Amino acid sequence: SQKIEQNSEALNIQEGKTATLTCNYTNYSPAYLQWYRQDPGRGPVFLLLIRENEKEKRKERLKVTFDTTLKQSLFHITASQPADSATYLCALDPTDSWGKLQFGAGTQVVVTP
Amino acid sequence: EAQVTQNPRYLITVTGKKLTVTCSQNMNHEYMSWYRQDPGLGLRQIYYSMNVEVTDKGDVPEGYKVSRKEKRNFPLILESPSPNQTSLYFCASSLGRAASPLHFGNGTRLTVT
Questions:
Q1: What pLDDT digit, counting tens, does each position of A8-32 carry?
Q2: CB-based contact (8 Å) between B106 and chain A?
């Protein structure tokens, strides 16, 4: 069966350090992968999309990599700030079935001053 | 302001009493979707709609109905709610092309007693 796995343990990190989150998937052949941020009690907010032919994508202090051989995406927050504290979700569509975007359970990041 | 609006934000009801959660978007988006979010399970898709009068089941459609009579509205109907439908519900919309990012509403917290 298809599965998207993110580390369920919260990532505690000191301000200024780089946070690295992992998204592993099985039984998908995604053309792209998306990352979202979710704050408590709020809806997810889109951050970045990376396509299968892109190895890396950057947006300000965020960097995403996509390795279709390892079936893994890494999400990096560089120079982390307390305002980066949130839950981060990865998402992808099942093969040949866009519109059914499926999400990992998310990883909580806590950045302490 | 571009947004997805859900109502109500909080709802407490009793088993078997029909309810509707409304969702409206002002971005002229083709695609709309409903998700439920439960601790440890992440976001799971209930139903989605590619366009007016076109709806399809997601991963957990049982016990729910939707309709898409107008482009901007996509209500979620629980004909006979049960306690296992207690959850946080999110409506989302997008342009309707593959890889289009989702715009989420702020959620409806439903409790069924």
A1: 899 999 999 999 999 999 998 888 9
A2: yes
